[in-house]
Design brief:
274 residues; five-stranded antiparallel sheet
Amino acid sequence: MTIVASGPAASPAAGKGVGPLLRAWRERRRVSQLELALRADSSARHISFIETGRSRPSEEMVLRLAERLEVPVRERNALLLAAGYAPRYAQTPLDDPALDALRDGIERLIRGYEPYPALVVDAGYTVVAANRGVAMLLEGVPERLMAPAPNAMRLTLHPEGMAPRIRNLAQWRGHLLAQMEREIALHRSDRLRALYEEVAAYPVPEEPPGAGPAEPVPYFALPLRVEHGGRVLSFVSSISTFNTPMDVTVAELAIETFLPADRATAEYLHATAG
C-alpha cells in the first residue's frame, strides 16, 4: 500500500502563556518543582517564577524543560510560541520530496516484514502505509471504510470492519481504547478525542462461538485472535517510533508490526503468501 499524506493533529492554542502550560505538563507528569529543577539544572525558585509569569524563560530553557518533561514535539512548538519564540520543529507533509528517503525506508521495512502484517499510522491513527499482510486481514472490509484515508481504529472496531471476526474482541477493544486514552492524555488532541468517542460508541458484535479468554497456549502478551479463511490466527503487536525526531510529522508516525503468536499462524501466513 502506498504511503499517503494525512492532515495534522490538532494542537491546543497557547493562549495562557508558557508558565501555565509548563505547570500543566509538570503536573501531568507528577513531578514537583524541585524535581524538575534538579533535572533541568535550575532552581525550584526559578521554576516557580516561570510558572507564575514572574520570569520569562529563555528559548533554551523552554526546550530543556520540555525535554525533561517528555513533552511531545508538536507541543514543544506550542510552548515556544507561548513564550514568544519561533517554533523549532518543522512539520513537513509526508508526501514532500524532503521525506523521500523516509518514505522509501518505511516501505522497505514493512515489505520486508511480509508475510506478517505491518502498518504505519499517524497521531490520529490514519493508516499511511501497510503491507500485504494487513491487506489480507482486511479482506471483506467495505470500501467505504478503506477510502480515502483509512483509520486503523475504525477498521478494527467498526461492526462492519474486522470486529465481527475478532475472537477476543472484548479484550482487544479494551486494549485499544486504553491505548487511545493514554494518547489523549499525552497529546491533548481534539481530533483524537473525537475519534475515541466515535469508536467507543460502536455497537459491539456478539462474539462468535468458541470465543473467550481460555487459551491452550501460554501467550506472553495479549494476542489479537482474528478469523481468516476458516482459521483463527493469533498475533502479538509491537509499536515502534522514531528516536529523537526533529520534525512533527516524523515524531507522530508509529510503525505497528504483528508477530505470529503460535506456529500454526506463522505456517498459515507463509503458506498463503507462498
